[in-house]
Write a structure and sequence with these properties.
160 residues; alpha+beta; three-stranded antiparallel β-sheet; single chain; 3 strands
């Protein structure tokens, strides 16, 4: 009987620790994924310093979100039938510049830091509104003398 109680107690403790661990892993799930309204990216980093851990995680997430935006914009650019090879190169440079500028405005929507064995681990999720990114890209395209005459805004918006 004691053995049975011990096994039940052990199972209960193991179950509770698993549940608590699941509760202590924020920054996951569909609420933190890219959707129709926001580009989102998550990252983790570890360091002996809490501030450095957060900075590393944010930099990694920023890189991930800029890669998402660049990929989406390049896919949408395929809708531009009037672009030649020179325009593609110019468009690519423009996208790179816009994503760098927009990444400066990203918002940290989730942050979780914890310390273990003298090291800090930080998880972050960052986001950028898709409408703001799209507007910035379109405004840059419209302000470019060479591209604005070839740019088909409605096709780009639809593909983006």
């Amino acid at each position: 009987m004691k053995y049975y109680k011990f096994i039940c107690f052990l199972a209960f403790v193991l179950g509770m620790s698993t549940w608590v661990q699941a509760q202590n892993t924020p920054c996951t799930g569909s609420a933190y994924s890219t959707n129709a309204d926001f580009f989102r990216a998550s990252a983790s980093a570890q360091s002996g310093d809490a501030t450095a851990s957060k900075k590393k995680a944010v930099i990694t997430a920023r890189t991930a979100i800029t890669n998402q935006i660049k990929a989406k914009a390049e896919m949408a650019a395929k809708s531009q039938s009037k672009f030649g090879s020179a325009e593609w190169e110019q468009f690519s440079d423009l996208i790179q510049m816009v994503t760098r500028q927009e990444a400066a405005n990203l918002k940290v929507i989730c942050e979780n830091s914890r310390q273990s064995d003298g090291k800090y681990k930080t998880d972050v999720v960052v986001e950028l509104p898709k409408t703001e990114v799209l507007s910035a890209i379109i405004n840059q395209l419209k302000s470019d003398d060479k591209l604005k005459g070839l740019f088909e805004e409605s096709k780009f918006k639809q593909a983006f």
